[in-house]
Specification:
3-stranded antiparallel beta sheet, Arc Repressor Mutant, subunit A, alpha+beta, 146 residues, two-stranded antiparallel sheet
């Protein structure tokens, strides 16, 4: 039997598959009632279950999005070497991180494109934790933290 999933259900299950704890991580755009609706649908279909207060993907939930429940997850999702995204991740993983102006200079992007890549591709899609701090002389510096 194939379970028809909404885009949101697919997204949260795919992200859960990328983490060892399998915990469901809710997108910022999803709020109270919508979270409950998605959570209820996942649990009633057997794709997720509560472990204490945390909703986690089941083996069936991982299979529903093409993930192998027996394989060790790769935190942060699948990455291809040599892409702009991979290069951006490398910049942000350096101990000194990277400022928007450094990212703009490296890729030839506009500042809003650099910020969008960090918020959209890295944080939301790959589930990476990106921190920022204002540093004298460099401006706001972004880093990927584990």
């Amino acid at each position: 039997m194939t379970t028809k999933l909404t885009a949101t259900q697919q997204s949260v299950l795919k992200i859960a598959a990328q983490h060892e704890d399998r915990a469901i991580r809710w997108p910022d755009r999803l709020k109270g009632g919508a979270i409950k609706k998605v959570a209820d649908a996942l649990t009633s279909a057997g794709l997720a279950r509560y472990e204490g207060d945390v909703l986690v993907a089941t083996d069936e939930g991982l299979r529903a999005v093409g993930a192998d429940p027996d394989s060790k997850p790769v935190t942060g999702g699948t990455r291809r070497e040599g892409t702009k995204q991979a290069r951006l991740i490398e910049m942000l993983q350096r101990p000194e991180g990277a400022s928007i102006s450094e990212i703009v200079a490296e890729f030839g992007w506009q500042p809003h494109t650099a910020r969008g890549a960090i918020a959209g591709a890295l944080k939301k899609k790959l589930g990476l934790t990106v921190t920022s701090e204002k540093i004298e002389g460099r401006g706001r510096v972004y880093r990927i933290t584990e």
